[in-house]
Design goal:
Number of domains: 1
Number of strands: 5
CATH topology: Nucleotidyltransferase, domain 5
Helix content: 25-40%
Strand order of the largest sheet: 3-2-1-4-5
CATH superfamily: Ribonuclease H-like superfamily/Ribonuclease H
Largest sheet: 5 strands, mixed
CATH class: Alpha Beta
Distance between the termini: 47 Å
Shape: globular
Order of helices and strands: EEHEHHEEHHH
CATH architecture: 2-Layer Sandwich
Length: 198
């Protein structure tokens, strides 16, 4: 059962989406919720059907006190690695909030300190706290929306369905057609070999 973080100070929940993908950016969201915010379908984005995620996105964006999405593209990911890119995307989301949080709760076990604001890492936090779950929904839906917009350019990679994750069809297309300008060249795009970075 998800709950609000037990505090009376301003809490921002943050989470990312797309960390394990072979192509496209990583998105992160930061969300500040009212203490009485609730929705029966809100959960970790991985536990919510796509149609319900989109419904939740509209609800969160309407009723959150503040929310924002940060993006780090595939070229930046290749330069700084995906872990640092995930932290940077979260920082970019936090940069855009209209309200400065007094504490940040982060899904996962690591984070880079943001503006000397206290933070707490929560393993599987998107299944524990409402604001992290809300951030996971926004990060996931905004990223999926982006991947669908570029899927039409490269239909053979099946991004409309896999959103850039390493499915068998995606890897088969990379083996047959090679990487696109959207692929993360620092990732192992094929299981048995690494493509040369160019």
């Amino acid at each position: 059962m998800l709950k609000h973080y037990p505090s009376n100070i301003i809490i921002a929940g943050t989470d990312e989406a797309g960390r394990g993908c072979l192509a496209g950016p990583v998105h992160a969201a930061a969300v500040i919720l009212k203490k009485d915010f609730e929705h029966p379908l809100l959960n970790d984005s991985k536990q919510v059907q796509e149609k319900h995620r989109n419904e939740l996105r509209a609800y969160i964006e309407k009723y959150a006190i503040a929310w924002a999405v940060g993006i780090v593209d595939h070229q930046e990911i290749d330069k700084i690695n995906i872990l640092n890119a995930s932290f940077l995307a979260m920082h970019r989301a936090l940069d855009q909030l209209d309200i400065t949080p007094e504490k940040i709760i982060v899904d996962g076990n690591r984070f880079h300190t943001y503006r000397e604001i206290e933070h707490e890492c929560v393993i599987k936090g998107d299944g524990k706290y409402l604001s992290i779950a809300a951030a996971s929904i926004l990060a996931k839906t905004h990223r999926d929306e982006y991947m669908k917009t570029i899927a039409a350019e490269y239909p053979q990679y099946d991004w409309y369905s896999n959103k850039g994750y390493p499915t068998k069809k995606h890897r088969t297309a990379i083996a047959e057609y090679g990487p696109t300008p959207h692929h993360r060249m620092s990732f192992r795009l094929l299981k048995d070999e690494q493509l040369e970075i160019f």
